[in-house]
Specification:
single chain; about 700 residues; alpha+beta; Endonuclease I-creI; six-stranded antiparallel β-sheet; four-stranded antiparallel β-sheet; 19 helices; endonuclease activity; autocatalytic cleavage
Length: about 700
Amino acid sequence: PEARTMFTAMNTGHNGALYDFSVIQLSNGKFVLIGDLVEELFKKYSNRVETYKDLEYIVLDEKDRFEVVSVGPDLKAGKHIVSRVWRRKVRDGEKLMRIRTRTGNEVILTKTHPFFVFSRGDVVRKEAEKLEVGDRVAVMMRPPTPPQRKAIVDPSVYAKISDYYLVPNGKGMIKVPNDGLPPEEAQYLASVNSHLVKLVKEIDDSLAYIAGVILGDGYISSNGYHISATFDDEEYMDAFVDAVSNFILNYAPQIRNNGKSTVVTIGSKIFAEMLSRIFGIPKGRKSEIWDVPDVVLSNDDLMRYFIAGLYDADGYVDESSLAIILTTKSENAARKIWYALQRLGIISTVSRVKNRGFKDGEIFRVIISGIEDMSKFARFIPLHHSRKRAKLEEILRTKKSYRGRRTYRVPISGEMIAPIRRRLGLTIVELSKLASHYAGEKVSESLIRHVEKGRVGEIRRSALRGIALAFQQVAEDVGDKEAWTMAKRLQLIAEGDVYWDEVVSVEEVDPEELGIKYLYDLTVEDDHNYVANGILVSNCMGTIHSNSARETIVRLESPPMNVPRIMIPALDVIIMQVRFNNRKKGTIRRITEIAEVSGIEGESVQLNTIYKYNPAKDELYPTGVPSRVMNQLAEHTGLTMDELLEERVRREVVLQWMVEKGIRSIEEVGHYIREFYIDSEELLKRIERDASVGLTEKVRTVI
């Protein structure tokens, strides 16, 4: 069964997968490459690797399970446990899909890996190869707040970094040779002819800012003897020098003015090595290989000061396009900055552009645009660069937000509003007044008319929320529970923690040309989705363990899933499969019950059991209860019930023939289902020639 509210989130079907450089968002605020993560676990579990066809997987012990960011059935961000990891080699001749979105998110995955796509007021799953330019896919907007951890420095960082540790002894300091880990009381690092460097036990804002400046527009020399950074603003330079003075005692760096800029050089091998080890800053040329250090993601304050250092050094405020932009050659760094800003509630985009002057080079721009997000940046990021800060303040003082960014709007269609309004007997004027009251802002009559006539494709979240709350109030007043449920779904869309990013590019790629050898996937408990390169991705098949259809409903409504009761009717069919021992056939699996969710009556979820299992005959038999799904199909297709039953028999024939022929693989089953949709008559004629006598007679009744 599917646990579905606003979207269907399901367990892994083990056929969709991501390439190794896909960045996974963990619940602790860190971002890891799925390839690095999974390969490390495969090494650890090398003697416990299980296989299924060409797939390898590991069932993780409790202590090795980890949490990823996911989205629940109410479109709210959460975190759930990964219980298995998967990998497989790229198959011969296999092609992958590269999907890019308007905000710069990009992911490469298998053709069958599903996305969550917004379509006419509902959220549907769509495989990568079926995505089209213009589709709106779910992207994380507000991830859950990660734990705010202290950034404690691993003592092993200091092993042999200096000649001595300086340790207080009550009368002063004594030298302790640095042959390994520092004594607990050690305060400074010292070497012959060097200034004392403070031994840092916990990273603070100043050190995070220094790291941001160096990674932005500075460097550690390739021999590790000095640090250098270039400055074009005195206030920014003073902030950097002051921060350095907190860590190197009685030291004045070398400052050289070149006219248009000033170069600051710090000649401390100990301090340079300390920064390199703590933050993973490469020595020498780093433009394409640097990354956002995991340690600065430990808490939001460190992250804010690190980002301030980056933007002071290498960012700029573009007054013409009203944007704050950071440019880098490191794609990994650009995407992690995007995630870090997202954690602070600042929406940005990542664009890939050709680097002028370089034949094959590319650069990446992290762009913060829109007055709302620029205002958040000014509020949260403590810039020291006076001119950049002044430009930003001037923009915020003189420019006003207009309509807002697309991320703060949601797709809309007339089918989402008009049917509920008419059902509740509301005029457009009445709805406008009520919605404006609940939204706390004007929801105009013209906006509602434009939405209902399909002239508007997006709407402010606040306006949709006002409309949803207005509908709910009226539905409650008149006792229309179904209308209330429909309105509640609109509220979930308006208040969700995802935004619907527009697909701008869908292309087939050759994994061999990209150097991709393995593909990876995760089994995420409960919500069965996770964030890869910013985009919410699903898996392919879902199960819940329970003893009956009724118990399935209880499990859906209970922790940890907590699907709201009003959303249970979005679940269509529950199919119960049981494994048991048969005296003649041994251990077998059988479908024992097929039930439809027909709605809610009072406090109870209504189930229609339409098929039951007869163990004596080893077959399913119809209960005679009318099928809600069949009635809906008749209504929407215009077919009579007899025509629908005949169509069902045609499909039964195909399935029974595949059982007869032992056709079981995903690829083969998918092939014949596609054949049925392309030319059902031709496939049925083939089955007539190829099937058993009994099945042949059945085929002839429908061709």
